[in-house]
From TrEMBL:
CDD domains found in the cross-reference section: GH27 (cd14792)
SUPFAM superfamilies in UniProt: (Trans)glycosidases, Glycosyl hydrolase domain
Keywords: Disulfide bond, Glycosidase, Hydrolase, Signal
Alphabetical GO biological process terms: carbohydrate metabolic process
Official protein name in the record: Alpha-galactosidase
Domain of life: Eukaryota
Extent of the signal sequence: 1-20
Cross-referenced InterPro entries: Aldolase_TIM (IPR013785), GH (IPR017853), Glyco_hydro_27 (IPR002241), Glyco_hydro_27/36_CS (IPR000111), Glyco_hydro_b (IPR013780), Melibiase_C (IPR041233)
EC numbers, comma separated: 3.2.1.22
């Protein structure tokens, strides 16, 4: 059944992309297996990132109180473990030994103390750098030419996640720049989830799985329906390259930032979950509304994202802005999203054959937003009326 959605997961050890490090094929294969087996990304990472809401207005108090809120809201217990600091956390220049240093005015205790605080609560800390001479904000140095030094620093601080951006570099191939940090992280000796933020420019789905655990397939997301749907379309192209240990990343969640309506945010979250995208909250968790939390805490949708089979769901039909997205899950189940991108309420139908099930199958249908089973009038498919910019999300279980 999975073959309807994925043309085989890519065997990374046969990838033909050039690795800029001077290693034997056996060492390369061992390294790729390390990326898959080191445990940090067997399922898509979940957590929070500071950029979408705070951008450069970030400090250690915000990070600490966000970590506390992930716990008090129950989000951490659902899997949102990473507390990720994005750009603007460091001083504008390195110290006299060439080391990155936390900005004294906003992170006076330092990153190690912050990591200790987060770890004491059972969470993980993420940090940000850039495969260029400075980061995208131009407010702190990048890591180009300092890969091993910075990787060692991150490991010593207790960092668990590195988002590695693509601004202000030397014009060299991203494969060269991203591989250097990858090997530096490996050498540093601490399992650090490596998230490659190359924006999809050089088709990283084809090569980034050699070096990291996730890679951006698109430009930056915006808090709008047009941005979410266009990015979903872009990410959809690369589904066959994703799998346990390596994930396509259509950028962070905008749920709760205020630019879209409730149904649009539900659709955003549903499609990201189906696509096995990293679920990184981008709003201010500390002041999140009850509606926002009801989306982010939908365990049935989260379970789709974290399904151990690890196959990215895909768009299988689109006509007149009415779409069907689907993908296989473990235990021979199928997840289906009926998405209405039009401006008016409309019926959307899907037959079992379209999603890889026998048309004569007896199927149990679970509605993941209503948290209820659907009474089936037709045994060979399902039809639902879907509001504008809304979706219906189901798990189909052959019985």
């Amino acid at each position: 059944m999975a073959s309807r959605f994925v043309i085989g997961l890519v065997l990374l050890c046969f990838c033909k992309c050039t690795i800029s490090m001077n290693t034997s094929s056996k060492a390369r294969e061992d390294y790729i297996q390390f990326l898959i087996a080191n445990g940090v990304a067997r399922t898509p990472p979940m957590g929070w990132n500071s950029w979408n809401h705070f951008q450069c207005n970030i400090d250690e108090r915000t990070v600490k109180t966000t970590a506390d809120s992930l716990i008090s809201t129950g989000l951490a217990a659902l899997g949102y473990k990473y507390v990720n600091i994005d750009d603007c956390w460091a001083e504008e220049s390195r110290d006299r030994n060439g080391n990155l240093r936390a900005k004294s005015s906003t992170f006076p205790s330092g990153i190690k103390a912050l990591a200790d605080y987060v770890h004491a609560r059972g969470l993980k800390l993420g940090i940000y750098s850039d495969a260029g001479y400075s980061t995208c904000s131009k407010k702190m140095p990048g890591s180009l030419g300092h890969e091993q030094q910075d990787a060692s620093t991150f490991a010593q601080w207790g960092v668990d996640f590195l988002k590695y951006d693509n601004c202000y570099h030397d014009g060299s191939k991203p494969q060269e720049r991203y591989s250097r940090m990858s090997y530096a992280l490996h050498k540093a000796g601490r399992p650090i989830l490596y998230s490659i933020c190359e924006w999809g420019e050089e088709y990283p789905a084809k090569w980034a799985g050699q070096y990291g655990n996730a890679w951006r397939t698109t430009g930056d997301i915006k808090d709008s329906w047009e941005s979410v749907t266009s990015i979903a379309d872009e990410n959809n192209i690369w589904g066959r390259y994703a799998g346990p240990g390596r994930w396509n990343d259509p950028d962070m969640l905008e749920v709760g930032n205020g630019g879209m309506g409730l149904e649009e945010y539900r659709s955003h979250f549903s499609i990201w979950a189906l696509m096995k995208a990293p679920l990184l909250i981008g709003c201010d968790v500390r002041s999140a509304s009850r509606q926002t939390l009801s989306i982010l805490r939908n365990k049935e949708v989260i379970d789709v994202n974290q399904d151990p089979l690890g196959v990215q769901g895909r768009k299988i039909r689109s006509k007149a802005a009415l779409e069907i997205w689907a993908g296989p899950l473990s235990r021979k189940r199928v997840v289906v999203v009926l998405l209405n991108r039009s401006g008016s309420r409309a019926p959307i139908s899907v037959g079992w054959r379209e999603v890889g099930l026998s048309p004569s199958s007896s199927v149990i249908v679970r509605d993941l937003w209503m948290h209820s089973f659907v009474s089936m009038r037709k045994r060979y498919g399902i039809t639902a009326y879907v509001a504008p910019h809304a979706c219906k999300m189901y798990i189909l279980t052959p019985s």
